[in-house]
Amino acid sequence: MEKTKILFVEQEIIPYTTEKSIMGTIGRYLPQGIQEKNNEIRTFMPRFGCINERRNQLHEVIRLSGMNIIINDMDHPLLIKVASIQPARMQVYFIDNEDYFQRKFVFNDKNDNFFKDNDERIIFYSRGVLETVKKLGWAPDIIHCHGWISSMIPMYVKTAFKVNPLFTDSKVIFSIYDDDFDGNFNKNFADKIKLEGIKEKDLKYYNNSNYVNMIKSAIDFSDALIIGSEKINPEIKKYLSKINKPILDFQPIETNEYIDTYHNFYDKVLDKELVV
Questions:
Q1: Is the pTM value of this prediction over 0.90?
Q2: What top-level class would CATH report for the domain 5-270?
């Protein structure tokens, strides 16, 4: 039997992120656990500037790098780097760009101000992941997105990238965490997103983009949802109560039992069974 292919699009993965968060812990151990259940995986995260390349032994993958991603009529070179987590026998692909990710801070500057180009960074990351998967020629059965920086992936997969045979049958699962941020994206965010296959109605939440609207868009375009944190934004929680989609409630991660639960959820989503 052919292995199920699962693409993990992460915001945080221990040990590459310094803080030990629930998102970083899941980013580290869930892909390993799923791989050990005889599935095929690919794992991506941004190459934030706080990641020490020498210590973590990152190196560029020349055959995957070199593409330009156009945002707001500007070319932005895509660099793909890779590192291995040896105990897990797992590779992590890093999306990198000198302008967007080679800075000391992650989402806020030294004065804790939200970076003005976070809108373009999230576009670049989302499209960078999907374009790299295309180059790999690897068709994921499930795309599991974690954190708000991956929240545009569901929309892209279900619109602009759906015509590509690699993504036509992919099921998208979005995990919702307690990762709110203050502030709004730029007013012309929706214009920067546009690609062939994306209609105006697909961009309704991006005309006034803040955390809540980004997550609502991810919910609308996903096939199923997972509550990744014990507490999530109350407006998002209320929105989920009106959604008729498979939803997996919060699973404690103190033991590895959540890996079995997630794995069973993947199977049910692929079988199109309703999960409550």
A1: yes
A2: alpha beta
